[in-house]
Structures are given as structure tokens and as C-alpha cells.
Design brief:
Radius of gyration: 23 Å
Helix content: 25-40%
Strand content: 15-25%
Strand order of the largest sheet: 3-4-5-2-1-6-7-10-11
CATH topology of the largest domain: Rossmann fold
Largest sheet: 9 strands, mixed
CATH architecture of the largest domain: 3-Layer(aba) Sandwich
Structural class: alpha/beta
CATH class of the largest domain: Alpha Beta
Distance between the termini: 15 Å
Shape: elongated
């Protein structure tokens, strides 16, 4: 098959979150199974050009229809760690991708509407006819609309679309100007609850809703999150649309790139180990303590790695720190805040804990340090309010760091409680799970983990080793996506 991925991110050249990792990891896994994959991305001025090999202009004069006229674009081509990528660079006064940012501009809906129009126009003009166009999140939600309403009549009638939603919170609401700009000129037609009209704002279209309505198949990034999106507030108002299109909606768990996250070969950790040489993991714990100036003692080391914001359950992260310290453990945090109030809160905590030999807060993100923490910690807390898939718990399992997670989204699909998971045999369990979002819930799960650590260290090590033996690579998800591609190809 010939697949084109169209997205706003692709790690490591464009990475703001997990979307970039998924686009790159899935593309490589599908290529390794013998298929052809190309990627179309915006050409941001702030992307990591040092990760692109052989960048050259591939199509100099792409004229994109826009507001009844045209916008001149160049399309550049290069390889990002083996993946063939096309970068769209518009030459207009709007400077859509020369802002020094990926997201966060006041006209993001117009920026990515233009990118969607330019990407599909490039496919048309360059005579690329992929079997599957795979789009991601609201930024490319208009591509299925444009294909079905305009471009299938211009020679692209055989293309099929898979649309993956990574985060339901951001849906790309916009006004009628986006319709006029992209050539979807019939406002009365599109401002309809069966098409693009937002279910809760009659004066707005919803790009993500458009992606759901017009795609051949829609998925989110874990089976449990797919259920949550339909039947809980996690759907962020798209529940009626998902209900109407339930027959083409499902969940496929993300994979983890084991070439990057692998304690057997990780360049960022001083001591390599496997599930068969688990005893070497403790050497990384010693190295982590030395690096962070923590006391070298016989205490469990608990960690948190991730953003400090509402989605990640920041109030429980804070409580977990003090609960761990009160239980005689050490606590390490690595993450940056997304809001000033949270940033100030944890800056105060960092100052308060500055001389504590059992606590270290690193209020930034450091890729190298994250590897050492995964390798050196005994447990990892992931108390998210919602988590479409989650990579933290998967990485923790790979490094023999026992995850303590809230039972939401992909966390529930990957972590199986040591004490209570009746659907898994004891030798297939790998962590601790709690379900409520209060202090008592996380204390209960952390308390069970501490009890096992202190009272039965052999069993705790067995649990950690069992976690290392779970396989969350891209192999299985890639096969599932290929199954979707084959299904929609023949519709």
C-alpha cells in the first residue's frame, strides 16, 4: 500500500507532544512491514532542521486556491531519520508558519485550514494518489471534508481517509471565513449538525467534527479512551457525533519506540540491564542520586515525569510527593508547568524542598535526565485526570519501574493491578491502579506499592520484572492500522 500521513507534527523534527512521536513511530513501523509511507508537514521556521537530511525544493510553484485567489507555495522534501517528508512553505503576508511557534497563535484555525488545503492540493497537482490518507487531530480535520466535497470530483475519487484523534480537548472551532477561504462556499450546507456545525455553538464550525463525519474510519489512541470519548465528558461535546458514527469509530493503542526507550542499549544511562539482569538497575539509582545530590540510602525512589497541568492530575502529583516523603521514600519530579499559577506553586515547593536530601524537583524538561530517572526510579506515579494513551507508563514498564496509575484511558489498557486485576493471571500483572481523583485513592495505591516494597522486596522485584516483559512496541498497533487501511480501501 501507499500511505500518506498528513499531520502538524513529526518527531523529532516537529515535536510539541505525543502526536509527533506517534506519527513518526507509526510511519516507520508501517514502512518496515513493506509499505510506502510519505509525510506532509508544515514548514515551520522553528522546527529542528538539523534532523532533516537532504532538504531540497521538490515543487517550486504550488498555487493553492484561497479566498477566490491563489497563494504561492514551495514544497520542500527531505528525510527525517529515514522517513520521506514534504514540507509546505507558503509565500504570503500571513506568514502562517513563520511565527516561532507550532501552536498558540490567534489564527491557528486559519493557519491549519490553509495547511489542509495546501496538502491536498499538493497531492492533486503532483499526481500523488495514495491508497490511504492518514490525518491527525483537528489541525487536519478539514482534509476529509475537502476530499469528499471537492477533490474527489477532480481526480481523487479513489482515496480513502483514516482519521486519528489524539486529544478531544482541542477541536479547531472557526467561523464561516474558513469555509470561504477553503472553497467550501455553501454556508447553509455546512452549518448543519449532520456536517460541520459545532453541536454547542451554532455560529461555529468544528474541524474535528468534520474529520469524524467525513472520514472512512476514525480512531483514538487506546480502546478505553474510545469508550470514554463516547460515553463520558472526555468526549468534550463530540459524544453525539461519535454516537452517530460509532460504526466506524474505535481505539488503537499507541506503540513505544523500543530503539529509543530500551535499558539494554540506552546511551543516556550509565548501566545497561535486561529483565534477566535486573540487579544492575540499582546502579542507575545510585547514579541518579549522585546526579541530583540525593542521599544514598536504602529507600524506595518514586518519580513523576510529565507536564504539570490539570490533565495530568497536578493536585495528586503534589500530594504524592508529600505522601512518599512521609512513608520514608525519596521523590523526584521532572516537568514544566503550563500555567503561571501552577508554575509558582511548584517553584515554591522546590524552594521549600531545596535542602531535603530525599526530594528533588526539576521544573523543566530534560530528555537525557528523563532516561536516567526511568532507569533509576523504583516507582512512577501517573495520576492523570484523563490520558488518551500515555507513554510514561509504557516507558516505566520497559525500564522495570513499577507504574502507579489512575485507571483512565490508555493507562487502563496497559497497567494491570498487582492485587485486584481479575482479568490477568498474577504473572501478567505489572503495577498498581486507582480510580478516583482524590487523595485517599492515590494513597491507597501508593500504600500498597510501599507495603510490597518494604515487606516483600522479592515480590516487588518480580512485579518490576513482569512489567519489563510486556511488549508495547509498534508491532501490534501497526498491524491494526494496516487492518483498518485494508478495510477502508475496499469500501
Amino acid at each position: 500500500m501507499y500511505i500518506v500521513q498528513i499531520a502538524s507534527e513529526c518527531a523529532p523534527v516537529i515535536k510539541a507532544g505525543g502526536l509527533g512521536d506517534v506519527v513518526y513511530g507509526l510511519s516507520r513501523a508501517i514502512e518496515e512491514k513493506g509499505h510506502t509511507v510519505e509525510l506532509i508537514l508544515p514548514m515551520y521556521d522553528c522546527m529542528r532542521y538539523d534532523h532533516i537530511w537532504g532538504l531540497h525544493d521538490a515543487y517550486r510553484d504550488l498555487w493553492v486556491p484561497w479566498y477566490g485567489g491563489t497563494v504561492h507555495c514551495s514544497v520542500f522534501c527531505g528525510w527525517v531519520h529515514g522517513r520521506l517528508c514534504f514540507f509546505i512553505a507558503p509565500h504570503s503576508q500571513d506568514d502562517y508558519f513563520n511565527r516561532g511557534i507550532y501552536y498558540g497563535a490567534s489564527d491557528d484555525n486559519m493557519r491549519f485550514a490553509f495547511f489542509s488545503k495546501a496538502a491536498i492540493e499538493f497531492l492533486l497537482i503532483s499526481n500523488k494518489r495514495p491508497d490511504i490518507i492518514h490525518c491527525h487531530d483537528w489541525q487536519t480535520g478539514l482534509i476529509p471534508v475537502l476530499l469528499y466535497e471537492i477533490y474527489q470530483w477532480q481526480g481523487m475519487g479513489n482515496q480513502r481517509i483514516c482519521y486519528t484523534i489524539h486529544n478531544f480537548k482541542h477541536q479547531g472551532p472557526a467561523g464561516s471565513e474558513v469555509l470561504r477561504a477553503t472553497g467550501l462556499n455553501n454556508e447553509a450546507y455546512y452549518f448543519n449538525l449532520e456536517r460541520l456545525q459545532d453541536d454547542h455553538n451554532p455560529f461555529a464550525i468544528n474541524a474535528m467534527k468534520g474529520g469524524i463525519v467525513y472520514s472512512n474510519y476514525v480512531n483514538t489512541v487506546s480502546p478505553h479512551h474510545a469508550w470514554e470519548a463516547r460515553f463520558s465528558e472526555v468526549g468534550c461535546g463530540l459524544n453525539p457525533t461519535l454516537h452517530r458514527h460509532h460504526y466506524k469509530f474505535g481505539g488503537i493503542l499507541n506503540g513505544l519506540d523500543y530503539r529509543i526507550w530500551n535499558p539494554e542499549t540506552d546511551d543516556y544511562i550509565p548501566h545497561h540491564y535486561t529483565h534477566e539482569t535486573f540487579e544492575y538497575k540499582v546502579k542507575n539509582k545510585t547514579a541518579l542520586r549522585q546526579y541530583l545530590l540525593l542521599a544514598d540510602s536504602d529507600k524506595p525512589l518514586i518519580a513523576y515525569i510529565g507536564r504539570l497541568d490539570g490533565q495530568k492530575g497536578v493536585h495528586l502529583v503534589h500530594h504524592a510527593m508529600y505522601y512518599a516523603l512521609n512513608r520514608g521514600a525519596q521523590f523526584v519530579l521532572l516537568g514544566s508547568a503550563t500555567e503561571p499559577s501552577i508554575r509558582d506553586w511548584f517553584a515554591h515547593e522546590k524552594h521549600h524542598q531545596n535542602d531535603n536530601p530525599d526530594c528533588h524537583l526539576e521544573l523543566s524538561f530534560n530528555e537525557e535526565l528523563s532516561h536516567l530517572i526511568y532507569a533509576g526510579a523504583d516507582m512512577m506515579v501517573v495520576p492523570s485526570n484523563y490520558e488518551p494513551c500515555g507513554l510514561t507508563q509504557m516507558i516505566s514498564l520497559r525500564y522495570g519501574t513499577v507504574p502507579i496509575v489512575r485507571g483512565v484511558g490508555g493507562l487502563l489498557n496497559t497497567v494491570f493491578d498487582w492485587d485486584y486485576d481479575e482479568n490477568r493471571r498474577p504473572e501478567k500483572r505489572n503495577g498498581f491502579v486507582f480510580f478516583q481523583s482524590d487523595r485517599e485513592a492515590i494513597e491507597s495505591a501508593m500504600g500498597r506499592a510501599f507495603d510490597l516494597w518494604y515487606l516483600n522486596p522479592e515480590l516487588f522485584q518480580q512485579l518490576a520484572v513482569q512489567g519489563m516483559q510486556h511488549n508495547y512496541s509498534w508491532q501490534t498497533p501497526a498491524e491494526q492500522y494496516l487492518g483498518v487501511y485494508n478495510f477502508v480501501r475496499h469500501k
